[in-house]
């Protein structure tokens, strides 16, 4: 089986990967520490589309990602993943997830970390090993299958985490600042690798970042959110075509950065007077 093939057909297919409508999240409702984290969020991520979420700290980016992953329940509104309610999508493992910390298990080899989601699904040992080999090849770590996570650099660990997230051929990747802890050069290299992998596998991606250049470089659309309660203030379409060596120095790239920066500036947090 190649990375493009799944038992359920092409990842993503023609169905929207995510459909969020009227989504609201209030933490601790009715208590003195009540927080309205998100209000009235409508968002669709199309098949194979790369969408980034950016906004001031605390605007609800991670909460939105967690709602899509069904790790927290909405207060109002609906979340559909691959045209299924989020709860069902979680049960069906319709998405892969990667966070800032790779979350690898130290006591398992690289290959066995990648195999983990397949073990949960009851794949045979041989199938799991073959699939892990294929994915480690995809992320350029074929020679490190037998290593342990602490023998790898931070960037390599993140690549393993991405391989693990892709293991079950999910139609959707959810990523929360996966490159946030990496140096700039490693980060740029992994951005290119991620785009290559997404293009090859047809996976849709919802990606949280604090970096404007990262959001613009990676995305088809950048969703700019306001300070709490988080709302979508603007969705910036990015049209950079195929990313090449020259993209990061190209006028359309700088235009995209300026547009996102301007949208963010409109959301500046007002600091209360002392
Ligand atoms: N489990 C929780 N209980 C109570 N409040 C929460 C919980 N999780 C998040 N919040 C609050 O919801 C708001 C949004 O948090 P969230 O982590 O989604 O923001 P963010 O945009 O991802 O922030 P950052 O950019 O700093 O990572 C914050 O005010 C946060 O304190």
Automatic annotation (TrEMBL):
<dbReference type="GO" id="GO:0005524">
    <property type="term" value="F:ATP binding"/>
</dbReference>
<protein>
    <submittedName>
        <fullName>ABC transporter ATP-binding protein</fullName>
    </submittedName>
</protein>
<keyword id="KW-0813">Transport</keyword>
<dbReference type="InterPro" id="IPR003593">
    <property type="entry name" value="AAA+_ATPase"/>
</dbReference>
<keyword id="KW-0547">Nucleotide-binding</keyword>
<dbReference type="InterPro" id="IPR027417">
    <property type="entry name" value="P-loop_NTPase"/>
</dbReference>
<dbReference type="InterPro" id="IPR003439">
    <property type="entry name" value="ABC_transporter-like_ATP-bd"/>
</dbReference>
<dbReference type="InterPro" id="IPR050166">
    <property type="entry name" value="ABC_transporter_ATP-bind"/>
</dbReference>
<feature type="domain" description="ABC transporter">
    <location>
        <begin position="18"/>
        <end position="252"/>
    </location>
</feature>
<dbReference type="Pfam" id="PF00005">
    <property type="entry name" value="ABC_tran"/>
</dbReference>
<keyword id="KW-0067">ATP-binding</keyword>
<dbReference type="InterPro" id="IPR017871">
    <property type="entry name" value="ABC_transporter-like_CS"/>
</dbReference>
């Amino acid at each position: 089986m190649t990375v493009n093939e799944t038992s359920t057909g092409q990842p993503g297919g023609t169905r929207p990967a995510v459909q969020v409508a009227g989504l609201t999240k209030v933490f601790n409702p009715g208590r003195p520490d009540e927080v309205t984290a998100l209000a009235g969020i409508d968002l669709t991520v199309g098949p194979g589309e790369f969408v980034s979420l950016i906004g001031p700290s605390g605007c609800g980016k991670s909460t939105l990602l967690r709602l899509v992953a069904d790790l927290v329940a909405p207060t109002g509104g609906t979340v559909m993943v691959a045209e299924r309610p989020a709860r069902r999508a979680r049960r069906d493992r319709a998405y892969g997830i990667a966070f800032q910390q790779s979350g690898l298990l130290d006591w398992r080899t690289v290959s066995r970390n990648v195999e983990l989601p397949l073990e949960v699904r009851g794949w045979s040992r041989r199938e799991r090993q073959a699939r892990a080999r294929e994915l480690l090849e995809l992320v350029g770590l074929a020679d490190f299958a037998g290593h342990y996570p602490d023998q790898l650099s931070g960037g390599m660990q993140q690549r393993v985490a991405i391989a693990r997230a892709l293991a079950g051929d999910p139609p959707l990747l959810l990523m929360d600042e996966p490159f946030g802890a990496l140096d700039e050069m490693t980060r740029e290299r992994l951005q290119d690798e991620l785009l290559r992998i997404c293009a090859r596998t047809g996976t849709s991606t919802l990606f949280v970042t604090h970096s404007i250049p990262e959001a613009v470089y990676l995305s088809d659309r950048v969703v700019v959110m306001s300070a709490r309660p988080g709302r979508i203030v603007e969705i910036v379409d990015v049209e950079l075509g195929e990313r090449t060596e020259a993209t990061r120095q190209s006028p359309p790239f700088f235009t995209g950065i300026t547009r996102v920066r301007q949208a963010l500036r409109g959301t500046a947090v007002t600091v209360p007077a002392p």
